[in-house]
């Protein structure tokens, strides 16, 4: 939220023609109960899909008596049949190298430990098997990292790697705008490999090129 507030104060808030941006008017602290009369709604910080993503945990018995610890409004973090996009959302004035996939995997495990009775996501439909779904997503990303490492038999850019990765349709059928999203997701996975010491950015490469760690 800090970059949004700073942009607002500096008059740099991006906007579309005819539309005013919706800016935050209050701060929600991770772990705090959101003031809501008669309910227990706790904010759970879940960075990964975006840096500021928050899930809301309704800490109450399920109305249908389902076993588990309340319900989770999961936003885009935990979805029943698709994997959320993990890309790059960075402040161009901040030189910090982020690890959004690492953040997402940590957030997944945090949500998995809640043991909720039901998940209410922002897409698709409500579901009850939160624990198994978390494990599926953890496995999916580990397999994606392993596959990406095999593609680094020779140094490649994120774009070259994205062309060779598996998506929900052939690369030639992906619109150009969506290709940019795919490349940012490839970059997010590459940064995780670098963080794990399994890959490295080639010094001086422009555009940045990645290779297996030596």
UniProtKB/TrEMBL annotation:
Transmembrane segments: none annotated. Residues 16-123 form the Metallo-beta-lactamase domain. It comes from the Bacteria. Residues 1-24 are annotated as: Disordered. InterPro entries: Metallo-B-lactamas, RibonucZ/Hydroxyglut_hydro, Sec-metab_biosynth-thioest, WH-like_DNA-bd_sf. It holds the Pfam family Lactamase_B. This is Putative Metallo-beta-lactamase domain-containing protein 2. It comes from Streptomyces aurantiacus JA 4570. The lineage of its organism: Bacteria, Bacillati, Actinomycetota, Actinomycetes, Kitasatosporales.
């Amino acid at each position: 939220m800090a970059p949004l507030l700073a942009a607002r104060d500096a008059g740099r808030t991006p906007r579309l023609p005819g539309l005013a941006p919706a800016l935050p008017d209050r701060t929600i602290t991770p772990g705090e109960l959101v003031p809501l009369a008669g309910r227990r709604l706790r904010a759970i910080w879940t960075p990964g899909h975006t840096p500021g993503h928050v899930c809301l945990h309704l800490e109450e018995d399920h109305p249908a008596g389902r076993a588990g610890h309340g319900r989770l409004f999961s936003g885009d973090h935990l979805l029943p049949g698709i994997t959320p996009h993990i890309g790059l959302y960075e402040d161009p004035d901040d030189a910090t190298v982020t690890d959004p996939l690492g953040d997402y995997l940590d957030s997944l495990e945090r949500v998995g430990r809640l043991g909720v009775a039901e998940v209410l996501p922002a897409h698709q439909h409500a579901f009850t098997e939160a624990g198994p779904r978390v494990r599926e997503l953890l496995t999916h990303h580990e397999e994606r990292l392993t596959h990406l490492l095999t593609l680094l038999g020779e140094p490649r850019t994120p774009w070259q790697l994205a062309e060779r990765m598996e998506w929900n349709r052939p690369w030639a059928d992906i619109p150009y705008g969506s290709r940019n999203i795919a490349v940012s997701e490839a970059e997010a996975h590459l940064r995780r490999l670098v963080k794990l010491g399994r890959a490295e950015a080639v010094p001086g490469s422009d555009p940045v090129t990645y290779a297996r760690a030596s």
